[in-house]
């Protein structure tokens, strides 16, 4: 998470900043309008009310060394949640730069909105500044930038489908091998020898008197007098 500050006042509360929170797993960003003078407590409440509701709890937070993020209140609060706090600077080699890249894209999008003035008016003459238009940037940012680029959400969903398909194939193969081993252990081919007594299947016999539905499946026993291969006598 990181801040974008010093923006023109926007919204009903004249916000001049917004906080960017990016989920590292799904790459989903959240844009939270706020004020530059927010304290650590204000930021914690903002995270609690707007982010924790859909992420349950954080296992790790990566942010810069802003005084809000290094304060005793912030560190002790997330220590109670069991959250690991990682502090970094932009483009630090130990981080993935995810929030920094997201902020660059957002700043460019907000800059283009502000380039047309502090307020935009639609056909009904309602005013819209950068703050009220900020929620519309989220789905636009989630779309692919090029015609051939897959949107992040679609790419993430495709990855889950691929994993599910591979897991299903692996489970089917494992079940097939298990059934094969179980069959081979319980259905070993008997070794036929001269003089053995065997039962003969009547499946291919059509000259047996009586109703076919009531005939015995096996008849015998018969004595083996000659062998013709492994299974024919």
From TrEMBL:
Keyword list, A-Z: RNA-binding
GO cellular component: nucleus
UniProt xrefs under InterPro entries: Integrase_cat-core, Retrovirus_Pol_polyprotein, RNaseH-like_sf, RNaseH_sf
An MF annotation (GO) of this entry: RNA binding
GO biological process, one term: DNA integration
Ranges where the Integrase catalytic domain occurs: 1-111
Name of this chain's protein: Integrase catalytic domain-containing protein
Higher taxonomy: Eukaryota, Fungi, Dikarya, Basidiomycota, Pucciniomycotina
């Amino acid at each position: 998470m990181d801040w974008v500050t010093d923006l023109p006042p926007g919204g009903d509360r004249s916000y001049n900043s917004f906080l960017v929170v990016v989920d590292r797993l799904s790459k989903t960003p959240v844009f939270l309008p706020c004020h530059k003078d927010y304290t650590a407590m204000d930021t914690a409440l903002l995270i609690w009310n707007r982010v924790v509701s859909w992420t349950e709890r954080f296992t790790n937070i990566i942010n810069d060394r802003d005084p809000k993020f290094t304060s005793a209140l912030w560190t002790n609060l997330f220590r109670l949640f069991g959250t690991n706090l990682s502090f970094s600077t932009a483009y630090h080699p130990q981080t993935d730069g995810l929030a920094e890249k997201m902020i660059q894209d957002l700043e460019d999008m907000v800059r283009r909105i502000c380039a047309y003035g502090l307020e935009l008016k639609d056909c009904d003459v309602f005013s819209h500044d950068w703050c009220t238009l900020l929620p519309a940037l989220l789905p636009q940012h989630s779309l692919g930038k090029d015609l051939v680029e897959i949107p992040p959400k679609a790419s993430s969903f495709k990855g889950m489908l691929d994993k599910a398909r591979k897991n299903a194939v692996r489970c089917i193969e494992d079940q097939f091998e298990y059934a094969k081993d179980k069959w081979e252990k319980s259905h070993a081919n008997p070794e036929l020898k001269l003089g053995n007594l065997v039962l003969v299947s009547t499946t291919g016999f059509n000259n047996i008197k009586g109703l076919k539905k009531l005939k015995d499946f096996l008849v015998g026993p018969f004595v083996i007098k000659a062998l013709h291969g492994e299974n024919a006598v």
